[in-house]
Amino acid sequence: MVTLTLDKIFNPKSIAVVGASNEEGTVGYILMKNLTELGYKGGVYPVNIHKSEVLGIKAYPSVEQIPEVVDLAIIATPAKTVPDVLEQCGKAAIAGIIIISAGFKEIGPPGKALEDRIIEIKKKYALQIIGPNCLGIIHPDINLNATFIPKTIKSGSIAFISQSGALGSAILDIATHENIGFSNFVSVGSMIDVDFGDLIDYFGTDPKTMSILMYIEGITSARKFISAARHFARTKPIIVIKAGRFIESAKAAASHTGALTGEDMVYDAAFKRAGAVRVEEIGDLFNCAEALGRQPLPRGPNLAIITNAGGPGVMAADATIARGGKLARLSSITIETLNAILPPYWSRSNPIDILGDAKADRYRAAVEACFRDENVDGILIIYTPQGGSIPAEIAESIVDMCRAEGFCKTYLTSFMGYEDVEEANYIFTQNGIPTYYTPEQAVATFMYMYQYKRNLELLYETPAELPVDSVPPKRPVTMTIRNAARENREILTEAETKQILDHYNIPVVKTMIARTADEAVIHALQIGYPVVLKILSPQVIHKTDAGGVALGINSETGVREAFDTIIRRVKEYNPGAQIQGVTVQRMIRAKGYELILGARTDPLFGPVVMFGRGGIDVELYRDVSIGLPPLNQTLVRRMMEDTKVYQLLKGYRDLPPANIVLLEEIMVRFSQMLVDFPQLKEIEINPLLIDQKEAFALDARAVIDKGRVFAKFEPYAHLVISPYPEKYKTFWKLRNGRTVLLRPIKPEDEPLWLEMLRNASEETIRYRFFETIKVPLAHEFSARYTNIDYDREIAIVAELEEDVQRKMLGAVRLFVEPDGKTGEIVFAVADPWQGQGLGLKLVDYIIEISKDKNLETIHAVMLQDNYRAIGLMKDMGFNLEFPGDGTVKAILNLKEEEKAANE
Q1: Overall pTM surpassing 0.90 (yes/no)
Q2: At 490, is the secondary structure helix, strand, or coil?
Q3: Are the CB atoms for 746 and 724 separated by under 8 Å?
Q4: Which of 41, 344, 693, 702 could be 683's S-S partner, Cβ–Cβ 3.0 to 4.6 Å?
C-alpha cells in the first residue's frame, strides 16, 4: 500500500545518505548537516565509497553494509550511478527512496534510458521513489529536514507540494517571514514514481494536515490525481497554482474545438471537477489556506463592503465585479437600520462608506446590520488610518461581535498600512479573522472561497452510467467509424457525423449527398426549397473559409449555379482537395442562437467537452467553457453559466429565451457519445441553432483516432472520472420475503445513511467503526461515506421502500488499495434487519464485484468479539489470522480461487 511506504519516507526511524560529503557547500554536506544538527532523532548513516566517516559519523561504502535495515535512502550521487545505488537499496530492503540527483530525462535520450532502468528496479523491489531532480522533503514535527535547504520551518497544518525545487525554496522563505507553519514540505521533482495523486492520498489521511497547497507545472496521472482530489477535497481544501496558463497544446487542430480548448482550459476544468481551488498568484496560496481553514464558506458571491474611505471601497467594488462577484444589494431593512445609526451623509449604498471619523461603535453597528441581511453572503471590512480612531479598538469590537454572532458568514478585513494597524491585524489573526494589506487581496480570497464552494457542489454530481435499455444502438456508429478507418480516413464526412449524432437523438438537419448538379437538383426537390449546398471533401474542414457554402437557394437554376460555383471555389482554395460532391439540406430560417458544441481528446485528461458561442466568428469571440465527461444536467448547466452567451440564451431584446432544458438534454447525450466511443478524437457541431422550441445541428464534423478503431478497451478506461456504476444494481429477497434493491451508494444518500446509523445499536456501530460514535454526525464525516470515487471505492447499500419511504438497511464497502490488486471490505446491517441473511448477501455480492475489478486478494478486519461477522467470513471461505491486537483479519485469495476453478 502506497501510504504505508510513504510513511517510511515522511516518518523514517533511520536514514541513509548516499553521497554524503565532508566538503562544505556540496549537496551531500548540507544534507548531512540538516539531518544531524536540526534535531532529527532517528539514525543517520552516511554512505560514501571513499570516506570512512562524514562529519564525525562512521560512513559505509554501500547501503548493504549498514548494520540495520533503514527506512529511507536519500541519493545524491551523479545520475549515472543512481540505478546501481537503487539496486543496492532494493537488496537491502530499503522501502523509501528520495533521489536528489539531476540529469535524467530532462537532458535527453541518455537520461531517459537511466530513468527506464530506475523504473525497472522500482518494480522489481516494490520501492516508492520521490524525485529525481528534487530538493527532498521537510517534516517539521519530527525535525526532519531531508533537503539541501539550510533552514528550519515552523510546524503547522499546511502540506505544501512543489514541482519546482527553486520556487518551493523561495515560497518556504516567504512563509517563514510570514510566520506560516507546515505539516510537511515536498519537492516532487520529475515524479518518476510518487506523484501528486499519491501525496494527496497520503496527506489526506494525515490528521495534522488541514489543507494541501500545490505548485504544479504538469500532472503525470490525471485519473489518479482527480480521484484522490475528489476523495479529500471536501474535508481538506486543495489549493493549486498551475504554471503555464497560456501554452496551448493543440497546434494544428482539425476543428474549432481543437484550436480553442488549450491545455490550460482543460486543467482549469479538471481542477473544478476535482473540487480544488485554482489561484493565480503565490500569495493567494497562503491567503486561501488561512481563510478556508478559519472561515465559513460564502453561500453566494454577494459581498458587502464596509469602509471609512471612499477610494478603497471603490477599489474593492471594482475587484469584486472584475472577478465575477456581486455587490450585495442591501435590503430596505438594512438601509433603514444604517440610516438610524450612521451620519446622514453616509453612502446609502454598497460599498457602505461610514466616513473617515468612524470609530469602533460605528464599525460594529454597520457589521451587525450586514450580518442580519439575507442578501449578504460575505463582509469585507476596510480601515484606513485617519482621524482619531484607534484601529485596535475597532478590531477588538469586530472580534467580539463575530464571536457573539457565531461566525456563520464570511468575514474578511483589510486594515491598510503597517505600523499604524499592526496591533489590529495581530488581533484579527489571533482570532481567526483573515486580514490583508489591500482590499483587492481580500476580494480575491473571498471569490476563491466562493469558487471552492461551487467546486465542492460539483463533487456531488456523479453522472449515471446509462441503463442498457436507454443506450443508443452502438453497432451503426461502430460501422461508420470502421468504414472510414478501412478507407484510411481520419475525417468523417458531414453526413457520417450527422448520422452518428442522429443515433444519439441529437437533432440534425437531414443531409443528402449529391455528386453531380443533377443529383443536387433531385435532392432539393425532395427536401423542398429553400436549400443549402455545402462542399463535401475530407480535406476541407472549414467550408465557409473555402467558399464552399451557398445559402438560401430557391430554384433549380440556383442549385446548378451554386453547385458549379462551390466546386470552382474549392478547387481554387485547395487544388489538391478530393472533392466528393456537395451536401444538400433544408435551409433553416428559425431565428435563434448559434452555439458550438464540441469535443476533443486531450492527451492527459481524455475527452473534454466544449460549449459556447458558435458560428463563423467562434474563434473571434472565444466565449467557451470546458467540462469533463460524463456529464449530467447540473454539470452542463454549470458549463453554460460559465459563458457570456448564457445570458443571451435567457432571452435578449426581441429574441425569446432558448429552450435550455432541450439544450441540456443534447449536451448530456453528446457527453454519453464520448463515453461510449473513445475512438472519436474530435467532434463538433457548429453551429447548433436553438430557439425557444427546437434545436438543429446545422453543420458537424468529426475526426477519428484510427489507432483506436479496432482496439479493445476496458469500459470507461479513457475517462478520468468514472460514471455511477448502474451495472451493480440488482434486486434480492430477504428471508421474510420482502424485496430490497442492492445498489451503489450516491452522494444524495447521506440522509438515508445517517438514518441507518440511527437504527443501529451502539454495539453494531462499534463493530463497524471500532469505536462508539454519536449520531447526528458532522456533514464532513458523513459525506466521506456517501460521496465516493467509484474507481477506488464501491459501497453497496440495501434499500427498502416502506410506507412510501425509502430506508437503508445495511451497507458493504470495498476499498481498493492504490496497487489495484488488493482491497479491504467492511460491512454492517442495522439492527432491525439483522437475521434476514442480508449480511451474507452483501459480502457475497462485494466478492463478485471484487472479481469484476480484477482484484487478487481482499480482506476484512474485525474486532475479536464480533463473533457473528467472524463466523460469516469463515463460512464465506476467508482464512482467519489473529494478529494479537484485539482484531481478527479475514483474507480471501481471489486469484487462487480463480486458478482452482479453471483447473
Answers
A1: no
A2: coil
A3: yes
A4: 702
